[in-house]
Design brief:
Length: 109
């Protein structure tokens, strides 16, 4: 029963994920014009998401020692720099995360 329950949960989650991914293509299938507010959200949401991620990541930073805040500051700087240069949200977040983790794991041990 436990394995069947787990399989059903995974199946339902997969179905919901696929439905959510394909729903915009079903609604806006090229025959209808995309509303202006959807276009607006497509432009502003990446910046809003990055802002929320930065606030979330920096919520527990302490300024008592450089090892506490310097990796975070460098990571944020890398995110901003990459986004200004490449305008790619995923690349910016991934690059900043990699730099931050490298600093925390290898430099500020």
């Amino acid at each position: 029963m436990h394995d069947t329950h787990a399989a059903l949960l995974v199946a339902v989650m997969a179905l919901v994920t696929v439905l959510l991914r394909f729903l915009p293509f079903i609604i806006f299938n090229g025959k209808r014009e995309v509303p202006g507010y959807i276009m607006y959200l497509g432009k502003v949401l990446p910046y809003a998401i990055m802002g929320m991620l930065i606030v979330y990541c920096l919520r527990n930073v302490r300024f008592s020692a450089a090892a506490d805040w310097l990796p975070s500051a460098v990571g944020v700087a890398v995110v901003v720099l990459l986004h200004l240069l490449k305008r790619n949200t995923l690349l910016s977040i991934l690059g900043g995360t990699i730099v931050y983790m490298a600093l925390v794991q290898f430099v500020f041990v």
